[in-house]
Design brief:
mainly alpha, three-stranded antiparallel sheet, 56% helix, 9% strand, disordered N terminus
């Protein structure tokens, strides 16, 4: 390697390999693409876009209408990143005005099943999580009152 050139982001040779024993190994690989990919696909806007594009094509305005709270800029950035990662395909139809549609690529479709599992888990355990949050908040409130 020439002096002054940096290693590619996918180079992880300095990472200690614990095999499957260390579940936090990906987090220690800041120079690796694994962390970058996880950051991208675990982003809330990316998750919502991938979920909405299951087995269908949507226009930008349809996506924006469906995703509560997303700004035009954030949706644009998210779609560009997902397209760059090969998860979303953008098709521009040569009409006036131009019509642009987005759909999952086959690779994006494989990610969708993983996201669906996460949503299913969340739906199944939302009451337990709500109860845990309420108990935590009560403890915090009692601790604050006791300290007065």
């Amino acid at each position: 390697m020439e002096e002054g050139t940096s290693k590619s982001p996918s180079n992880c040779e300095s990472t200690v390999d614990y095999g499957d024993a260390d579940p936090f190994q990906w987090d220690t690989r800041e120079g690796c693409e694994v962390r970058q990919i996880l950051d991208r696909v675990a982003d809330k806007w990316s998750l919502l876009v991938i979920a909405l594009l299951e087995n269908r094509r949507l226009r930008f305005t349809e996506l924006r209408r469906e995703i509560d709270g997303v700004s035009q800029r954030m949706l644009t950035v998210t779609l560009r990143q997902l397209e760059r990662d090969g998860l979303v395909k953008r098709t521009v139809h040569p009409v006036v005005p131009p019509r642009v549609e987005y759909e999952l690529t086959p690779l994006g479709g494989t990610l969708h099943s993983t996201i669906r599992s996460l949503v299913t888990w969340t739906e199944r355990h939302q009451q337990e999580i709500a109860a845990a949050r309420a108990a935590y908040d009560r403890q915090k409130d009692e601790a604050v009152q006791d300290s007065r």
